Amino acid sequence: MKAPKLIFIMMLSMWGLFCSCSVGSHGQRSLEPNGKNDVYQMLYFASLAGSSHNSQPWRVEVYNNSIIRLYADITRALAVVDPDHRELFISLGAFIENLTLSAGSLGYDCKLILADNYSKAKPVAEIVLNKASATPYNLKLIETRMTLRTPFDTNAIKENDVRRLTKPDAERIHFFEASDGEGKFIAQQTIEAYTQQAYNKAAQDELANWLRFSNKEVDAKRDGLTTAGMQITGISGFFVRHFMKPQDSKKESFIKAGIDKTKKQALSCGGWIVITSSGNTVAGWINTGRLYQQIHLTCTELGLGFQPMNQAVEERNYKTQVVKRLGIKDELVFIARVGYVSVVPAPVSPRRSVADFTRFIIR
Description:
By secondary structure, this protein is α+β, with helices and mostly antiparallel strands. Helices cover about 45% and strands about 15% of the residues. It contains 14 helices and 11 strands. A 5-stranded mixed beta sheet has the order 3-4-2-1-11. α8 links the parallel β6 and β7. α6 runs antiparallel to α13.
């Protein structure tokens, strides 16, 4: 066996690539909004929201620095793993949550108007800003929030912490201990759903399109799945950035390594967060995104690792089984694993600049 191939396989045995969640980059997330106006700062914090494959599917128009119109950028949709755009609108909900938190901290009240029906030409949401008393929020939590792929502590989540995680909406947010029968079932279904998706050729092609291996490509596109965000560091990271191509992700060695990594992730956590919705509607998905972002920010504050693992939602045959076993009456829309961690690395997920996705219009 040739040395480069040996190193390649060794690296793959440690790191999985095939995963639908927000991930990072080798460098700075995005330019900090130092010296920029309030609306620019709000949009900067909003853009730090998570999105599947780090696709960042948002487009914004700002009118007179008082009205923000948010559009779904369908050119960034994941047609294979997210054909109904559920995850896309969840990402927009997370964007809105960050924007609302940062606006309040900067001394603005937000009037949110969601569109009744989705249309590509119309905004998904309109946010009207009005000056108000500040509602302080620790914006560092938004900046340091990140998806963790490392093994989590398998100890049970403390009762007080579980209450904190489910507090935003106890009716929609469900918690299952990893050691319980339901938690073990979620883990197994996640592994099997991931395996099914990993061998889907169309999903493989879609994944490859969002991989950003070289530093040059990361800096040029500021989105997608990168080595640092997937925590492929050191010699392994150097090798991937300089010698691998995104199309290599379709090789059997990549696929098997991803499955092995997913098994370790699913079996190393303290519990599972499940979010349900009253139906498959754009408004319901956006609300799910806001809840997801609130939970993830709370995890950041509590020292809990958080990783969306939605394969059992994306693969419909597994979704049916999970809904039946958990006794879920509403629509299953989101799954994530959580667990205590001793070390949280600095976030490195790249983001496009505010100017890249925003038009400022003065009338």
